[in-house]
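Recall that a protein's primary structure is simply its ordered list of amino acids. Everything else, from secondary elements to tertiary packing, is in principle encoded there. The following example makes that idea concrete.
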Amino acid sequence: MPKLDLPLQYLLMVIFFRFGLGIKTHLAAFSAGSGLTAYINLQLFVFLFAYFFGVAEPGAINDTSGSSIYVIQLTSIIIACFISYIMGKYNFGFSFIIQPPHDFLRAENYLSSLNKMLILGALISAVTIFITLYMLYSSNTIGLLSISLLTFGVSYFFSERGDYEDARSAITVHRNGNKKS
């Protein structure tokens, strides 16, 4: 059932992040959505590169098996592993997400600006994953790449804002702590 592949991957990732790693649900949804849209972009770039060099045909974007699909998937996996290695080595990633497991007993303020951005980013990613299915099966590669890049850009913007909000709140706490002493 290839048409359910992306939504099921997204759902299973969110469930794993939530229950397997102990990440709060809205953070898990944001991380999984950002990761999937980044990987979709990576695969589309690999597909376009393979198409340009004659390794893949235009219809390959709809296929689920065949040598060109395996080349695209293997290349994407190798590139993603390399990117993951670099990100791990240099501590890149979502620095505003504290290391799990998260404290689930503390009440979460979902109306904070950071949480609003994260929830909006997760919703946009989820909608993009479903739109991706339509564009994938209608072979709209440029539209698919455009919407996927836009969604990843929004997620990146929200993650940068999250880093800014964390830094700002830490400075505020530090300043308030110094005034009391």
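The mean pLDDT is 77. Helices lie at 5-20, 25-52, 67-89, 113-137, 141-180.
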